[in-house]
Amino acid sequence: MNELAILTKAMIQERKDIAMAIIGGFIAGIAGVSLFSLSGYLISKTVFAPPLYTLIVLTSLVKILGLLRAASRYAERLYAHRATFSLLSRLRTSFFAKLIPLTPGILGKKRSGELLARIVGDVESLQHYFLRVAYPPIIVVMVFLATVLYTSAFSIWIACLFVVGMLAAAFVVPGLVLLGLRKVHGRVRRQRTVFSTEVTELLYGFRDLKVYGQLNKREEQLQHASSALSEEQQASAVHLLRGQSLHAFVMYLISWGVLVLGAYLIMNGSFAGVFLAMLVMTSLTVFEEAAPMATLPAYKQDSEHAAKRLAETVLAADVQAPQPTAILSGNQAVSLELCGVSFQYEDEWRPALRDVSLHFPAGSKTAIVGPSGSGKTTIIELLLKLRASTSGQIRINDVSIDQLDDASIWQASNVVMQYSHFFRGTIRDNLLLGEERYTDQALSAILDKAQLTNKSLDDAVYEKGENLSDGEKQRIALARAMLRKGRLWFLDEPTSSLDYITERLVFRQLLSQARDDTLILICHRLTGLEEMDRIVVMDHGRIMEAGTYAELMEQKGYFYEMKQIELQMVGEQCEV
């Protein structure tokens, strides 16, 4: 499958460990066959009372082969698993490198539990590709060919019987297993995704489900998903056990065939009876090396299915786009320009932005206002290259955004999104997300600027900031942004949950720090916008009007009406 090409490429990069694993596996297989063959010959030879030195030599060879088999098997496991872990590391790195630029779009299409199942479960499933799919046939062919050549020196007919057994173990048994697995192909993984999704949503929504009395219903759905997963896993395990049973049947059938055929050849005088036990033991041992072939189809389908799902997840990343060559400097204020930019979310009938043209001069302070869903946040996401515009051009410092390296844009930006994420740990941990390192004094000073004087750096922060109020979350996010050295500010509703006095104090600190920088502010509240160089009013993805606060109030247009509505609402609240 084309989806497995990345696995093949990663295996080539680990060719040294893979070659060592193959050599170790071949030596271990041959040593095992030789060990049991020699043991069989030793048992037969003792019947004829051989000289003592013969027994000493044979027993010494048995011990040497046993040690050789153990050592080579250890080396095989060591190099095979090291190659596998290195492969997984490369696959994770490659997958995440493709996934990160697509995260905003993917989160809109995939449920978080399903995405988690793919990131964790599907990548982990690919570890079987080398150990269970690519590696066993190589060892089986090498060991079988060597054994057949060895056996043909004693009896060509028994060697032919070995070839028949090899074909049955390598093709017939896996073929029968594959026919049975077609019915359950992918069902275990899909059901595991359903189960993971249900668990994730139950954990995230536990509080709301509890309040609205729907917890029991969700628990029943989770129990149903768990039962369905168990049934699919049981069905898959049954097919694997059938394959292993068929392989054991073939192994013992060939061993009995060697015994019967050898007895017949001894009666005809064309085969020495002292070698019969040796060849019977050889047949039992060599087919043990072929045991992984019985389960190969299952692991092959599992790997292919996992690789296909991962490829679907990052399908957009496979589009050949021009490689960014320019780097955005963070040492100077940044100018931004949108020329006829439009954007439409997938499966949405209405564009989020329609032919938007804006220019943000270096060092300017711009506020973008408008009702929810007017496209304000989309503009920031496009400027940060979190999404790609449907049409139009975006230029930063007169350079096309397509030519700019994503990381350099993020490095030059101080960003506060509408919903910031907080990690479990302390306030200090959540402030120190960048590469810069600061002293506790510097961090405490930033907290003071963000009006968080009641918080300590060692205060605990729960996952997703569950123990923080919305206002505290916003101020920590602002403090995190103020720690950065970028000259480009993107602020999306950074103070919507703050009271008026705290909001003014925080804004004063922000504007003081960003006085020479380019700043874009998205907000619903229109208070305090007098200090902005320009105000852009948007609605339904279009620019309705733009200008300074005084110009827009004098025009008495869209912005003026929004301001009057806000003043009226504030007045009604004061009366209440």
Describe this structure in words.
The chain is of the alpha/beta class and 576 residues long. The chain folds into two domains: 2-318, ABC transporter type 1, transmembrane domain (ABC transporter transmembrane region fold, Up-down Bundle), CATH 1.20.1560.10; 336-575, P-loop containing nucleotide triphosphate hydrolases (Rossmann fold, 3-Layer(aba) Sandwich), CATH 3.40.50.300. The protein is built from 20 helices and twelve strands. A six-stranded mixed β-sheet has the order 6-9-10-3-11-12, with helices on both faces. A four-stranded antiparallel β-sheet has the order 2-1-4-5, covered by helices on one side. Helix 18 links the parallel strand 9 and strand 10 (518-523). The radius of gyration is 35 Å and the shape is elongated. The two termini are 68 Å apart.
List the helices and strands and how they pair.
Layout: H1 5-13, H2 15-46, H3 52-99, H4 103-109, H5 112-125, H6 128-152, H7 156-181, H8 187-204, H9 206-211, H10 215-268, H11 276-289, H12 292-313, E1 336-343, E2 353-360, E3 365-369, H13 376-383, E4 391-396, E5 399-400, H14 406-411, E6 413-416, E7 425-426, H15 427-431, H16 440-449, E8 460-461, H17 470-482, E9 488-492, H18 500-513, E10 518-523, E11 534-539, E12 542-547, H19 549-555, H20 558-575
Parallel strand pairs: 3-10, 3-11, 6-9, 9-10
Antiparallel strand pairs: 1-2, 1-4, 4-5, 7-8, 11-12
Helix pairs in contact: 1-3, 2-3, 2-6, 2-11, 5-8, 5-12, 6-7, 6-11, 6-12, 7-10, 7-12, 8-10, 10-11, 10-12, 19-20
- Determine Rg (CA atoms, Å): 35 Å
Structural class label: alpha/beta
Mean pLDDT equals: 83
| The CATH topology of the largest domain | ABC transporter transmembrane region fold
Q: Indicate the percent of residues in helices.
A: 55-70%
Q: What is the number of helical segments per DSSP (H or I, 4+ residues)?
A: 20
How many strands? Answer: 12
CATH first level of the largest domain:
Mainly Alpha
* The CATH architecture of the largest domain: Up-down Bundle
C-alpha termini separation: 68 Å
Domain ABC transporter: 336-565
Membrane topology: Multi-pass membrane protein
Subcellular location: Cell membrane
Main location: membrane
